[in-house]
Write a structure and sequence with these properties.
single chain, 303 residues, six-stranded antiparallel sheet, 18 strands
Length: 303
């Protein structure tokens, strides 16, 4: 792909796509271009697509790069090709007073490349999936977002992740760690389909219990004034209206980091705060999809 070209037509699967401004730098600190963003999403697609395939998508778009104006986009743009799958879902309590939203559902490589060409750097999904006919299912993932309050770092997040792993294992649940691509990390836990309210309540109970047992390390309350020097276990991502950055998604940081699966051995050693897109591609070549089991190995949510 010639970086000096302002646009190029490519065939992706059975679709013809026009890629524009592929030479445009989206990450100024490293010179990482839109063409390289498209290349990353194309190469990571075999492991990323299964995690997106049945989930309504919210994107963060950065048309002028990570230092420019950006916006969240839930509703499919008016110029969405007719071959892109969309699903219309109710959105009670929408901040824009909409009763429904037409969400994009990424189920193939052409859709992923089309989004990358729109500078949709970040891909966010809920903890529930949709059925073949578009109806929303119950939650099939439980998520904990670990956010370190300075001077706490990824090392303290790793300590908390291990404590969470042990607490969840008592209930028969298996946790899979990943970096957030930002400063913290997340745990994804596959579960049998459950009402969103049940997952949120369970996650809060676990977080509150660990905060009570380790008050110098963990906080589960939302108040930001309580977080300095501790790790905030954000259990609220299990609310049906909320989303979490997808595994393998790029992040809009100074460098092109991505949300990367970790091994528990890495977590026990104190982890690493972030991996860039090339790092993540190399890790997948070496380790495969460390989150593959989150698609299949589901256990019932403890009562």
């Amino acid at each position: 792909m010639a970086k000096e070209s302002t646009s190029v037509r490519v065939k992706v699967g059975d679709r013809q796509l026009k890629l524009t401004n592929v030479e445009k730098v989206l990450y100024p600190e490293t010179g990482f271009t839109k063409g390289e963003v498209i290349d990353y999403y194309t190469r990571i697609a075999p492991v990323l697509l299964p995690h997106l395939a049945a989930r309504p998508l919210t994107v963060k778009r950065y048309p002028n790069g990570v230092e420019g104006h950006h916006f969240f986009e839930k509703n499919a743009p008016s110029h969405t090709p007719d071959w892109v799958r969309t699903v219309t879902l109710p959105v009670p309590g929408s901040t824009m007073d909409r009763e429904t939203i037409d969400f994009v559902v990424v189920q193939d490589l052409p859709t992923l490349v089309w989004l990358a060409n729109l500078a949709a750097l970040e891909l966010h999904t809920p903890q529930w999936a949709i059925g073949p006919r578009g109806g929303a299912h119950g939650a099939d993932l439980l998520v904990f977002d670990l956010d370190p309050g300075p001077p706490a770092t990824i090392e303290q997040c790793c300590e908390v992740a291990v404590l969470l792993r042990e607490a969840l294992a008592v209930g028969g649940l298996t946790a899979y760690p990943k970096t957030s691509g930002s400063k913290g990390m997340q745990l994804s836990i596959p579960i049998e389909e459950a009402p969103g309210g049940a997952t949120s309540s369970y996650a809060k109970r676990v977080a509150d219990r660990l905060a009570a047992e380790h008050p110098r390390l963990i906080v589960s309350a939302m108040a930001k004034k309580l977080r300095p020097g501790k790790v905030f276990i954000d259990w609220s991502k299990n609310n049906a209206a909320k989303t979490t950055v997808s595994v393998y998604s790029l992040r809009a940081r100074a460098t092109p980091t991505a949300s990367a699966p970790l091994t528990w051995e890495e977590v026990e050693r104190g982890g690493r705060p972030s991996f860039t897109a090339p790092d993540v591609l190399d890790r997948v070549d070496d380790l495969g999809d460390l989150h593959a089991a989150t698609l299949t190995d589901r256990a019932p949510l403890p009562s």
